[in-house]
Specification:
Blueprint lengths: L4 H4 L26 H18 L6 E6 L2 E5 L8 H13 L2 H14 L11 H16 L2 H15 L2 E2 L4 E2 L13 E3 L6 H11 L2 H17 L10 E4 L6 E5 L11 H18 L2 H17 L22 H18 L2 H17 L15 E4 L4 E5 L2 H15 L1 H8 L2
Antiparallel strand pairs: 1-2, 3-4, 5-6, 6-7, 8-9
Helix pairs in contact: 2-13, 3-4, 3-5, 3-13, 4-5, 5-6, 5-7, 6-7, 7-8, 9-10, 9-11, 10-11, 11-12, 11-13, 13-14
Length: about 400
C-alpha cells in the first residue's frame, strides 16, 4: 500500500491554512504587490517565452549579454526550464508550452540514473514530478522515483547527511553538505508517498535535522557549506563557496533553507522544521534593504551597496507565502508581497529589446565573479511560481502539491 499524506505526518497536524488578502494591511508601512501588476508581469513572461522557447533545444544556464547560454546535460539547473514551461502552460492553457515542456523533460531522462551530485531534486521536482501531477502520466512518476532512488546513493548513514558534491567513491568533497540540499528533499518525500517506502522520507528527515543542527546559527542565519569527517561523521565546521565567508549569510542559500524547511514541515508535520523555517525567514527579513530585493550576501561588507540577487528574492517569496499558510501569520504573506513588488518593479527585463530571460539582476557566484547582474533560469521559474501562488493558488497547489 502506498503511504498517504496522512501516513507521512510524523507529529501534530499542520495549522489550518490562512486566507490572506493580496494587499498588505493598512498602517504596516510596507509595499504590497498590486494584483494587476503581478498579472502584467506574468503576461510579460508568457510573451517572452512564446518568442524564445521554440528555439531552445538545450537547458538555459545563465545569460551572457542578455542571451541564454546552455548546459547540454542540464547541469544542476536543467529542471527549471521545463518547470517554467509547465507553469506557463498551467497559467495560459497554451498547449505549445506543454509540448515544449515534455520535450525538455525527455532531454533530462539520462540524469535520473546518474548519482554524480545531489541535484536530482532540482532536476526532477519542477519537471517530472510537476508533469505527473498535471497530466497523471506514470512515465513522469516512475522516472522521478528513479531519480529519488539514485539520490539515496549519496546518503552517508554515519554522518546522517546527503553528500552534496563529488562522484561517489572519490574522496574530494565526501564530507561536504550545502544548504541547497534542503530543496532536494521533496523528491524523496514524493517517492515515499508514491511507493510506500519510508526509507526515502526517513533520509529526508535525518538530513534536514543534520542541517538544522549544524547550519542554523542562533540568529537564524546560515553558512553556505558545512563540512564533516565522512568516515566518522564528526563535524568539521562551516565553510563557503558562494557566500562572502564561512561566517556570512549567502542570501540565495538562506532562501533555499526557508523554502526547504517549510516544505519539510508540510510533508512531515514535524513542527521543528516549521520553527526552523521561521527562524531563518525572520533573519532574512531583518536583513532586507528597503527595496526588498536581497543583496547577494546579507553580511557583505558593502551592505546595501553591493549587487543584488533577484533569484534569492523570488525563492524567498515562495517560501514566505507557504510559511504564512502553515503558521497562520499574515506578516510573512505581506513581506512576500513586498518582495514581489520589488522584483516586478525593478528587476524585469522590460527595458531591453535583447533580453531572452524574464528576471534581471541575478547573481550566480559573486566570489568567483561569475555571473553578476545577469538572468538565471531559477530566477524566472520561482518568479512564476511565487506570482501563481498569489493569483492562482488552487492551480499551483495542484502542480507542486501545496
Amino acid at each position: 500500500m502506498n503511504l498517504s499524506r496522512r501516513t507521512l505526518l510524523a507529529s501534530a497536524a499542520a495549522t489550518p491554512l490562512l486566507a490572506t488578502p493580496l494587499q498588505a494591511s493598512a498602517g504596516t508601512g510596507e509595499a504590497s504587490a498590486n494584483p494587476a501588476r503581478l498579472r502584467a508581469a506574468l503576461d510579460y513572461g508568457l510573451a517572452k517565452l512564446r518568442a524564445v522557447a521554440p528555439g531552445v533545444t538545450s537547458f538555459p544556464e545563465i545569460t551572457r549579454f542578455e542571451k541564454w547560454t546552455y548546459v547540454t546535460d542540464g547541469g544542476w539547473v536543467g529542471g527549471f526550464w521545463p518547470g517554467l514551461l509547465w507553469l506557463a502552460h498551467l497559467d495560459s492553457g497554451d498547449l505549445r508550452f506543454r509540448t515544449l515542456a515534455e520535450s525538455a523533460n525527455d532531454r533530462l531522462a539520462p540524469r535520473r540514473l546518474d548519482p554524480r551530485d545531489h541535484d536530482l531534486g532540482f532536476l526532477f521536482s519542477p519537471s517530472w514530478v510537476t508533469a505527473h501531477r498535471l497530466t497523471g502520466n506514470p512515465v513522469w512518476r516512475d522516472g522521478a522515483i528513479d531519480a529519488a532512488t539514485t539520490l539515496t546513493q549519496r546518503w552517508n548513514p554515519t554522518g546522517r547527511y546527503l553528500r552534496a558534491w563529488g562522484r561517489l567513491g572519490t574522496p574530494g568533497n565526501a564530507g561536504r553538505v550545502i544548504i541547497d540540499t534542503m530543496m532536494n528533499l521533496d523528491l524523496l518525500a514524493f517517492a515515499s508517498e508514491q511507493t510506500g517506502d519510508r526509507r526515502f522520507i526517513d533520509i529526508a528527515i535525518a538530513h534536514a535535522r543534520t542541517t538544522q543542527t549544524h547550519f542554523v546559527r542562533a540568529d537564524g542565519s546560515t553558512p553556505h557549506v558545512f563540512d564533516f569527517n565522512p568516515d566518522i561523521g564528526a563535524p568539521v565546521g562551516p565553510n563557503t563557496v558562494q557566500g562572502y565567508s564561512p561566517t556570512s549569510c549567502w542570501s540565495r542559500g538562506q532562501s533555499w533553507g526557508v523554502y526547504g524547511f517549510t516544505t519539510m514541515y508540510r510533508r512531515t508535520g514535524l513542527r521543528e522544521f516549521r520553527d526552523t523555517a521561521r527562524k531563518m525567514a525572520d533573519y532574512a527579513l531583518s536583513a532586507l534593504t528597503p527595496d526588498h530585493v536581497p543583496v547577494w550576501d546579507y553580511r557583505s561588507p558593502l551592505g546595501a551597496n553591493d549587487v543584488k540577487d533577484s533569484s534569492a528574492g523570488a525563492i524567498l517569496a515562495c517560501g514566505l507565502l507557504d510559511l504564512a499558510k502553515v503558521t497562520g501569520r499574515p506578516h510573512y504573506h505581506q513581506k512576500a508581497l513586498a518582495i514581489l513588488d520589488g522584483l516586478v518593479s525593478t528587476c524585469l527585463t522590460t527595458e531591453s529589446t535583447r533580453a531572452e530571460a524574464i528576471l534581471a539582476r541575478g547573481t550566480r557566484n559573486r566570489p568567483s565573479e561569475d555571473g553578476i547582474e545577469i538572468s538565471l533560469p531559477y530566477g524566472d521559474y520561482y518568479l512564476f511560481e511565487a506570482i501563481l501562488r498569489v493569483l492562482k493558488p488552487a492551480q499551483i497547489a495542484k502542480a507542486i502539491d501545496l
